[in-house]
Amino acid sequence: MAQTYDHQAVESKWQSHWEQTGLFQIKEDATTPKYYCLEMFPYPSGRIHMGHVRVYAIGDVVARYKTMRGFHVLHPMGWDAFGLPAENAAIEKGVHPNVWTQENVAYMKQQLRRMGLSYDWDREVNTSQPDYYRWSQWIFLKMVDRGLAYRKRSAVNWCPSCETVLANEQVLAHEGKDGGVCWRCESVVIQKELEQWFFRITQYAQELLDGCDQLTSWPARVLAMQRHWIGRSEGVEIDFPVVDAREDVTAIRIFTTRPDTIHGATFMSLAPESPLVEQLIAGRPEADAVRQFVARVSRLDKATRTAADREKEGVFTGAYAINPFTQEHIPIWVANFVLYEYGTGAIMAVPAHDQRDFEFANQYTIPIRLVIQNPEGTLVPDALEAAYEAQVEAGALVNSGTFSGRSVSDGKQAIGEHVETQGWGKRTVNFRLRDWGMARQRYWGTPIPMLYCDQCGIVSVPEDQLPVLLPEDVPFTGKGGSPLKDSPSFAKVTCPTCGGTARRESDTMDTFVDSSWYFLRYCSPKDTQQPVNPDAAKHWMAVDQYVGGIEHAVLHLLYARFFTKVLRDLGLTTVDEPFVHLLTQGMVTKETYWCEEHRWVLPSDTKKVDGQRLCTQCERVIVIGRTEKMSKSKKNIASPEELCDRYGADTARLFSLFAAPPEKDLEWSDTGVEGCSRFLHRVWRLVQEQRAVFEEVQSTSGSASTALLVAVQRATHQTIQKVTHDLDRDFQFNTAIASLMELVNQLYKLMKDSPLEGLSVDERAGWRSAIECLLLLLGPFAPHIAEELWEMTGHATSIARQPWPVFNPDLVVSDEWTIPIQVNGKLRSKIIVQAGTTKDQIIATAQGDDKLQEWLQGKTARKVIYVEQKMVNFVI
RNA sequence: GCGAGAGUGGCGGAAUGGCAGACGCGCAAGAUUUAGGAUCUUGUGGGUAACCGUGGGGGUUCAAGUCCCCCCUCUCGCACCA
User: Fold this and answer.
1) What's the complex ipTM?
2) Selected residue with higher pLDDT from A800 and A822
3) Global pTM value
């Protein structure tokens, strides 16, 4: 009995069914291999968007596929639920952040459910709830114990809009804005001098760098970004004695990666923030000018000041240092491009061989001395147009005393050694990576479990007093400062050490702390003794496949790698790296519509008249704008809910997997969605029409006997082979789905060519197994319709628990070969031969081909190339 | 500037060095329908043709979208890191 495809009914039926039967709940199982499939958990902003649909569709196909391949799959979901929007909602609407967050979680959970995702909801985590954040606090305390969390005073990035400190990773470049901007609100970030909590991520810098080599299944560009962010460089620290040294500053220590050029150091430069500056200038006539310069430079935010194209500026301190290699007295300058945080905050300046020093020296007419000559020997000291920054073997040392004549690499080595034997300094390694400033002056975050006691100083909250709960009695005013300061119940506390009065830390943790270890919590989400049960972690870790956006290439992924190493050192997990494979999916984009009168407009506010698109309000012609990431402001949003209402979750999933390879941007197309919907309807109808034919027979996998059977089985098994191959190799969902479409097209053709009446039992059985294979292959992509049709064709157990079909190589091969014939590499003809025909026979047949003879024009081929089953090429 | 990636029909995109353009969209014709929509079938890189076609130019090869060299364009990331 044929039925029409009612996606609403089918989808809600199976969603309830999966839930009621607990189909996706997973336990550790020693009998089958494990697979941990994880997508980056969402921030509960209110509703899911197409980006969510895409990433979760990708993860769900992986999880379902791996399950069918015989793995027991951990596929959890949770909420990255702390963050500023909840607090802003509290300020604007008077809703408590917790209420706002929990409502959003409930709503979005129901939306995710509608997508038919195979999550084990029993493992759900929510970072904003005490049963989670107590363990973030616990980890923090362990890090304090190990010196990995500490307080220091320093210049920090401050977002004036969010009124909080930001980590370096959270300050981003922004087109059209002078300086770095906040990763969340895009306000220009300023510098503030504050005492703050930091994580000593730099202690793991080398390991984080080395670990990149293990991550062979990560996208190259993510690794490149991580390596660059860590920024290791090898060099030498060298003391330059100060002339007429005063007691407090006898030498200036510099860091250089080019010790080979030291004989060319004709001046020094200090960072404006360096305390050495004040010590050197005190009492000198230059002091005022220097102070003015320093004040002017430090007013600028860091990003502006350090822009590469910024003019080199500086001021002479009046002091001199001694180049230890030449004994020359060289002037000490303060320069705007020297960074206090990098190296020692002081450099030796070699204008001949460093572009910045070159520009600086030209500006202030400081001598330039050539100490590396190029291999051709053509460099003339007085005629340099740019610094000669030759590396490694390219040049040779000149004007360098006993070191002259050495190669660059040789010179580096020799001078480095000389510095050490003379006791002038040491060879060392420098990193660009800075410690992670992780305290935030906000309410809706994990409270930092520390106290300030008048007697004992900084005190940890004892472990048995965790969690430090967020207080309820906090007014949300939107005014600056930490809201927790204003909670009387929270701030005042008794010191656990001396019993005196103490004040609680009122800062909360950066939300990136929460997401740095959630993947471990999923292993044992209900553990009440520790953040993660080491046995559970041993079973499940590492995450085999991680899926998420490229925007976290540095931030989240670097922090998560750091935390994994910390928790490993605490004995909670045994893995060094959390994520084995990483798939960074592209953005979901859509065309934008622009009306001169009404600016960005919704597609629904436009109409098509005579092939032109007009604004419905003002009748102006709509300009089709750039295809951009979906955003509310550009009004180029497609709504997952409308999509599910109209076409169903299966269509939404299918389209987001089919329209582009997963790592590329996906351009949303309403007609493309319809194409996918059409395909599912075709599948439905195919099965309905076939059902009557094979209802009473069992499927077969035996060798075929009739032409129809051969064709049906070949199409089916070729598709099994192709889909399996596409999924195993880099998850090429788009081509996998294309081959499923091809199979359906082929089966329709075969059905048309061989009417269903009068088929043999064998042929019916062949049809049955073809349809079953089709449904099994479709299952991970469009699970609801696959379940429904699976049930309709007489199966009692879920298709999600069936083994993945295996292709039979014997059934894939064809009984005849079509061999292209080329002349000089160009296709000129084709011949059809029986499968198994030998090379000589094929060449003979080809030579008998009329078209080929025309092309040969009586000549004999100089050479004949035959590629087994592929082609013949005659070279004349 | 440095790093990563990309450039193929009207569009999204396929092609272990071996038939370029799978699959889908769009478009066209036909069938069905009172009409529209929906559905189905067929066709669809360009050119009347010989032929020409994967950003441009060289090269390797019997054979290049694919490998090598040079160049151009675009996207993303980092940008004075001594």
Assistant:
1) 0.94
2) A800
3) 0.92
